[in-house]
Amino acid sequence: MKKVLATALAVILTVGLFSGCMTQDEDTMYISVISKGFQHQFWQTVKAGSDAAAEDLGVRIFFTGPEGESAIADQINMIDAELAKGPDAIALAALDTEAVLSQLQDAYNRNIPVIGFDSGVPDAPAGQIAANASTDNEAAAALAAEKLFEVLEDKLTAATADSPVVLAVLSQDATSASVTGRTRGFVEKMAELAAGVNDSVAIRGGLSSINKGDANAAVIVEVVVGATPDITDMTNAANGLLNTENLASVFCSNEGAVTGLLAAINAGASVPDGVLLVGFDAGAAQKDAVRSGLFMGAITQDPFQIGYQAVALAVKAARGEAVADIDTGAKWYDAGNMDEPSIAILLYD
User: Which residues of the chain have pLDDT under 50?
Assistant: First the structure.
């Protein structure tokens, strides 16, 4: 009997405390933020940005995500749990659009606006995602091209058909929207910059939709795509690329490409003298490569701004204000600035 009474009292106290919290905060806007993961440092930085926006804007948020990015069922359960709370808006980075269609429809029917963030909710039904807070991958990769061009301009100017310069891109695949966006962004910006100093520029290789120019061009921007994203295939692709004649630089369009290139180098492949290596993302091995000078530098997304802007858009949408997609930006980092606080917080492992 004592155990029953104690349990009943605990339930009453718990309900009372919960009800009190709800009463205290019932007039404060509540935003659910559901990410693709939770443990990874990238998502923890997204959470820090979300928390900062909540504080600045005077709203409550609940940030959650599954253990890993393959836990689709867990994320669906999290969305259902948040929908049950009746949030004013939801920010969502969906692991699988098809898996969350009923949840999106439920939110839409209840006039709960949904904001996509990071990779968002690709191909969601029209009108069910109010706006997205994400990296403009083409613009981010274009920044890498600009940094490389600053160093290579004289070499590109002097290039001829008899003594060409090859600027390579190593990509993990030719289908993923983020990877192809980065590849396209780098290639098109580099070709544009090179054309400003040399009238013989060609694009060729694994992204055939943008190939152009003469085969015997003075400046060649070449895309190399691994047979599969598997580390073995990416390492093989990197090995072949490093043996390219007249190679001047390599841009790796994501962490998988960087991993393949570093694996090839660690296994004994040599980087030709003067060849500049540039990466994308900020894994531990890549950061070490930048710090040591093996890589000239790399591009990092801005996960803090991804989280901040996702909440900011959700608040605006919940208030009935017009919202539009936001580019959360990207940053260049190298051995000289990577320990600065404003950059260090973005360098997730």
Answer: 1-24
